[in-house]
């Protein structure tokens, strides 16, 4: 077995940080590239400051590594394609990153492969968007460069149409869903595929970020199987190597519709670090290094609470309530090494494990109430 | 809560490496000092190459940090005492490191505090040692600078006495023990004390290193309680802040005798990363940062297998059998980032978790048989 390999990661954020924590166990030397000199990976990897969208920067960084992966999709795909041509392993493969960078291509892929998803039309500009009054209520998504709640508009009324994007986008029917689910699935180079159990997400009503997550999702066995199958189908049809997070709506009628996919470790899989046999990070590493995938079994019910910068505070982060929450059994802190806080910035997450779902939910509320990031 | 602190670690080996994996979650910037330019912590911390026994090196490194700890005992204590005087937090405290650096002082401490331990005499040189023929069979230990099986001689016959150390040492009665146990206990600055459940160790007959470890130890509830109490008593009597590993003999008569102590994360606690609510590494960090200690409850039975360099191989390490062992559920790999292997060098460890003790033992045997470090 060839280990001691150099793993290059595009992006030096929290996902890279947790990937490094896992890569250490495999003797892989991690190199990270990020435009921010204060990126969370700066002190725990061979860190290069540079632009992820710049061809030459991406190419040169990539040439110094044996295997390349991403922790953010917004990377120069042309450079990745060239690196792939020159024999560097790039997982997920560049053409898949390209597909996922564009929500319009993503939606067309679902349609073509008969993967259930909300009905949609492509829109080129705001003027064209105005024609779709009969699609309301709807969601307008920017084709490219949306991230973490940015690049998405909810359009309820005719007046709202003017808030839509004046750039190529996709207009989707609004789904009156019962729950939002996510399944993380992995596929290695040999074609082995394994899905994690579905999780249930609760979004913050205002800023459209995951606020809580519960695992396992409270759904029927049939829905669980269906959700995992859909995720497995997508990664297999893509022929993708790596980790794919599939966010889905469960409708009131019990239908599952795919909402978004991300070809990398994902916010909806953080709890796997403590709550599953294998974590999403180790699974991603196993997939891209073509090692056998780990067993995804859940060891315990878990809740994940995002630690977001408190509204009204910007500046050097101060954490309140650490002592209080660390007194609780099964509370696992993960801070992301960010010096500065601002409203709703993701500063960390906390996973809570507890065999009792009731006690789990109480602890999640306690953590949410007592742990604050201020400045 | 004051986080974002600079934690200085003396020693940049595998214990430091796993401590860093945990410190990342708390936003602590870790700085390590080690004489070896290829030390396991070199790429994942702010690394300084330098001698741990040199006053000036230790002092200057220490001045750049807010809190100092060790992952090896062999550090210049005078420099640590000076740093402590100047207000740097040093945990474990320098006078405790000094005590533990000297096995003679350790044994006298047990006697003075009525902590059960094998009967002993102090010896100044080999000539004096020769007088103790009536103590055989016995164990002769070098007072200072022993480490990982070095500095210990088993003396069975009168001829063996000449193998004893010609330097200040301690001669202990050989204990015909039933089992070797270890309890890891932590104490924070506020005086809170928590012990992990006892584990059972199996040593390799030749090279005196832990070969396997099983948790929980197969002992009576009464012995479990007694073992934990002894560990708690020692750390409390020492008034020590940090993590203390207490290795003990369980005699055929059910008596517990303290063998050795180590004031830091320890080989006998690696399994806590996956098998307990809190890991020994996080517990150590909580203790030295004066945070509430974590719950030590075991989540699963576990086995820990040390990954040692195969006899007969020296040079750049190659790992055999990785694919085979990673196919097993509950097998957790931890490699230590060492480039070169040599016979019996600790290259990593593997923790196996399984709710069935029988299956756990089978997997431990499988791992031991299939995973090899060669060159």
Could you please describe the fold and organization of this structure?
Chain A is an alpha+beta fold and 375 residues long. The first copy, chain A, is built from eleven helices and 22 strands. The first copy, chain A, has helices at 14-23, 55-63, 77-85, 94-101, 103-112, 126-129, 221-238, 272-275, 280-288, 322-326, 357-370; strands at residues 6-10, 29-34, 46-49, 67-70, 89-90, 120-123, 138-142, 152-155, 169-173, 177-187, 193-195, 199-203, 210-215, 242-251, 256-262, 302-308, 315-316, 318-320, 331-335, 340-341, 346-353, 372-374. In chain A, the strands form five sheets. In chain A, strands 10, 11, 12, 13, 14, 15, 16, 19 and 21 form a nine-stranded antiparallel beta sheet that branches. In chain A, helix 3 packs antiparallel against helix 4 (94-101). The model of chain A has no long low-confidence stretch (mean pLDDT 94). Chains A, B: One of its GO terms (molecular function) is 5-(carboxyamino)imidazole ribonucleotide synthase activity.
């Amino acid at each position: 077995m060839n280990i001691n390999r150099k793993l290059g990661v595009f992006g030096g954020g929290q996902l890279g940080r947790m990937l490094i924590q896992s890569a250490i166990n495999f003797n892989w030397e991690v190199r990270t590239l990020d435009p921010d000199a204060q990126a969370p990976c700066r002190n725990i990897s061979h860190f290069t400051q540079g632009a992820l969208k710049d061809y030459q920067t991406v190419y040169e960084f990539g040439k110094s590594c044996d295997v390349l992966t991403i922790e953010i999709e917004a990377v120069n795909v042309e450079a990745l394609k060239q690196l792939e041509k020159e024999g560097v392993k790039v997982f997920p493969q560049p053409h898949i990153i390209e597909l996922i960078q564009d929500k319009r291509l993503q939606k067309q892929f679902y349609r073509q492969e008969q993967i259930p998803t909300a009905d949609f039309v492509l829109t080129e500009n705001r003027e064209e968007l105005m024609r779709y009054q009969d699609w309301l209520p709807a969601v307008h998504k920017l084709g490219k460069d949306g991230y973490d709640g940015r690049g998405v508009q909810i359009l309820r009324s005719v007046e709202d149409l003017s808030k839509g994007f004046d750039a190529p986008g996709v207009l989707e029917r609004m789904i009156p869903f019962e729950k939002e689910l996510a399944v993380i699935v992995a596929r290695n180079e040999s074609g082995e595929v394994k899905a994690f159990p579905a999780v249930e997400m609760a979004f913050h009503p205002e800023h459209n970020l995951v606020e809580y997550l519960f695992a396992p999702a409270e759904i029927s066995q049939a829905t669980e199987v269906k959700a995992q199958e859909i995720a497995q189908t997508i990664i297999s049809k893509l022929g993708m190597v790596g980790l794919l997070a599939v966010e889905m709506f469960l409708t009131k009628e019990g239908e599952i519709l795919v909402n978004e996919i991300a070809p990398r470790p994902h916010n909806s899989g953080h709890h796997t670090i403590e709550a599953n046999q294998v974590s999403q990070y180790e699974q991603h590493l196993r997939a891209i290094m073509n090692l056998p995938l780990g067993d995804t079994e859940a060891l315990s019910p878990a809740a994940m609470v995002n630690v977001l910068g408190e509204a009204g505070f910007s500046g050097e982060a101060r954490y309140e309530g650490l002592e209080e929450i660390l007194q609780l059994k099964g509370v696992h802190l993960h801070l992301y090494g960010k010096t500065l806080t601002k409203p709703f910035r993701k500063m960390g997450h906390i996973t809570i494990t507890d065999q009792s779902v009731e006690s789990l939910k109480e602890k999640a509320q306690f953590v949410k109430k007592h742990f604050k990031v201020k400045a």
